[in-house]
Amino acid sequence: MTTSAGDAGSGAPALRPQDWRRPRPEQGRPGPRLSRGEFAAAQLIAIAEAAAPGDRLGSKEELRARCEVSVGTFNEAVRIAQSRGVISVRPGPGGGVFAAAQSPMVRLGNSVLALDTAPTSVAEAVRIRDALDPLLIEDALWHASPADIAEMREVLAEMAAAAGRRDPDGFVRANWALHARIAAVSPNPMLRSLYVNLLDQIESHTLAVLPDTERPLPEYVADRLTLHTELVDAIDDRDRDRALALIARHVTSDARPGTPVPARPAPGR
């Protein structure tokens, strides 16, 4: 990844996901039309975010009626809200839909990763991955073929598309895919395996990517997209000095792992 997983302990509280995903009025551009399931998911997320973590929001049928959608559409909405780590569903007596408990988080540049596990292991995986990046860039400079470069540029296009639709989760995951593709060039199987396993550990425990800090996240994402584009260009040009300078700028773990990120305040609390 390219952002800075590092300082998991200071900075402004993270914004709510909708502060990043929804265009502001002054931007003047209508966003893409939401499907009925996405619209119902937005209603469900708003209900959950107005509640305290762990609060029961109601039965599925009560919430479906409140959202005024069909059973199939509501089930889609529940899946969307669950995938974003906003709600949990419990079966049986006393069950229903609940506001998810606050996820542990780790800082990642101008974003945070909402995790399904304690942050220390993920932060440590990011630190080790960062330490391996220069070795993989050295290998890519020597061994990347035109086909390898072409595939890296395809992943860059996915990053650009995610940035264009204001999707931080998609951008970060495409970013990880780019680094995995660079790692695949290395002729060293131990290095490749270790690096990809670290990426898998980070990604498998990430529920969502959320904005953080005072710098506008779209500006930050644009900067990281430029950095990665220039990095692939440097690999293509076999420009070692420029590639290593760029990967030094890319470091994402400049603080001690495991320090908690301040919890996001619930709306109205």
Keyword list:
disordered C terminus, 3-stranded antiparallel β-sheet, disordered N terminus, 6 strands, 10 helices, 55% helix, mainly alpha, 269 residues, elongated
Structure summary, number of beta strands:
6
Biggest sheet character: 3 strands, antiparallel
Give the rounded overall mean pLDDT. Answer: 79
Shape: elongated
Q: If you compute it from the alpha carbons, what radius of gyration comes out, rounded to the nearest whole angstrom?
A: 20 Å
The side-by-side strand order for the widest beta sheet comes to: 1-3-2
Structural class: mainly alpha
> Uncertain segments of ≥5 residues (pLDDT<50)?
1-31, 254-269
Number of helices: 10
Distance between the termini: 33 Å
Could you give the order of the helices and strands? HHEHHEEEEHHHHEHH
Concise description?
The protein has 269 residues and is mostly helical. Helix content is 55%, strand content 10%.
Q: Overview of this structure, please?
A:
With 269 residues, the protein is mainly alpha-helical. 55% of the residues lie in helices and 10% in strands. The strands form two sheets. It has a three-stranded antiparallel sheet. A three-stranded antiparallel sheet has the order 4-5-6. Helix 2 crosses helix 4, helix 5 packs antiparallel against helix 8 and helix 6 (146-164) runs antiparallel to helix 7 (168-184). The protein is elongated and about 60 Å long. Mean pLDDT is 79; it is low at 1-31 and 254-269.
